[in-house]
Specification:
Elements: H1 2-13, H2 17-27, H3 31-47, H4 53-66
Helix pairs in contact: 1-2, 3-4
Length: about 70
């Protein structure tokens, strides 16, 4: 799990979120796993009430692709 988190953080820092999500999207074909990914992203965002506009945009993209 740690490598995935580090890869996601790196993508955010390097402004390569779309490429990162493309790679994730191409690897996950199970609807159950896709739904779990969306739920996890939503839960993480809910933990921090101070979601930045950039984080909100990322969550919106995740919702469209995986929700």
């Amino acid at each position: 799990l740690r490598p995935a988190i580090e890869e996601a953080r790196s993508a955010i820092e390097l402004n390569q979120v779309d490429d990162f999500l493309d790679r994730v999207d191409s690897r996950i074909s199970s609807r159950i796993l896709r739904s779990a990914l969306f739920s996890a992203a939503r839960d993480v965002a809910g933990i921090d009430a101070d979601v930045t506009p950039e984080e909100g945009s990322i969550l919106a993209v995740v919702a469209v692709r995986f929700g």
